[in-house]
Amino acid sequence: MRILVVDDDQYILDLLTYLLTREGHSVVTAHDGQQALAYFRVEKADLVISEVDLPKLGGYELCEMVKESGPVLFIFLSERASEEDILKGFEVGADDYIAKPFSPRILMARVEAVARRIAAPVEEISRGRLEVGELALDASRLEVRGPRGSVRLSPTEFEILHTLASNKGVVVAEERLGELVWGPEGRGKAGLVKSHIDQIRQKIEPDPNVPRYLLTVPGVGYAIAPLRPISSEPSDQELGRGLSVLGSSDTGSS
């Protein structure tokens, strides 16, 4: 991948350049948000790794501007690690959020996880459009058409929704969903999965507080409504009629 690394700490830039180029990636660096945006507009990138607190143009603003240009992957690597900071990162479109200090091995595992999405783009997985009830997923544009019109999702958001739509009528266990999207390192990413689910609902649901399509099955996981809207907390009878469970021990879709 071509990766743009943005940080005002030269040590971090040098460390990430070493780690990423060692794995065969092409790296360009920037010391502030404006410089990063200028580089990106000229040379583009498959992935941006950025601090939140940047001179001249903040990381959140940089992420929004980069995401407006198309399906680019974005990871925050930041000293700001409160729950509010992390949720804000996902709100502006980040695909992952890693707190400093960080483990180089975990960072590289997460980079390689998004690299797999570049190697096997969701367009090839979907082979066109996928329709589930009132929702139509367009992989070529990372868009979903529904009652709220056409909305663009981030690559990670689209992959989560596509995974659930491909398993229509099945409750995908939370741990299994993380594994399907991020690979083995996705196990245990319950908070990350929930944050992305919340962002998807904000974009596609008529009322995000009362989901009609992207359902939570308490204590189990998530599902796309099979044929008709059901409540966010379906009864045992509803589950028995329409939904089975895809857990962490399963290997494929039903």
Describe this structure in words.
- The protein folds into two domains: 2-119, Response regulator (Rossmann fold), CATH 3.40.50; 122-246, Arc Repressor Mutant, subunit A (Orthogonal Bundle), CATH 1.10.10.10.
- Helices cover 42% and strands 22% of the residues.
- The chain has helices at residues 10-22, 33-43, 59-68, 83-91, 104-119, 122-126, 155-166, 174-182, 190-204, 236-242; strands at residues 2-6, 26-30, 47-50, 73-78, 96-99, 129-132, 135-138, 143-146, 149-152, 170-173, 214-217, 221-224, 244-246.
- It has a five-stranded parallel sheet with strand order 2-1-3-4-5, with helices on both faces. A four-stranded antiparallel sheet has the order 6-7-8-9, covered by helices on one side.
- Strand 8 (143-146) and strand 9 form a beta hairpin.
- The longest helix has 16 residues, at 104-119.
- It is globular and about 50 Å long.
Q: Supply the number of helical segments.
A: 10
Helix content: 40-55%
What's the total count of β strands? 13
- The CATH architecture category of the largest domain equals Orthogonal Bundle
Mean pLDDT: 80
Q: Please state the structural category.
A: alpha/beta
Number of domains: 2
Distance between the termini: 33 Å
Radius of gyration: 18 Å
Major β-sheet, in short?
5 strands, parallel
Q: What is the H/E string?
A: EHEHEHEHEHHEEEEHEHHEEHE
What does the overall shape look like? Answer: globular
Low-confidence stretches: 121-127, 227-242, 248-254
CATH class of the largest domain: Mainly Alpha
CATH superfamily heading of the largest domain: Winged helix-like DNA-binding domain superfamily/Winged helix DNA-binding domain
Q: How is the CATH topology of the largest domain named? A: Arc Repressor Mutant, subunit A
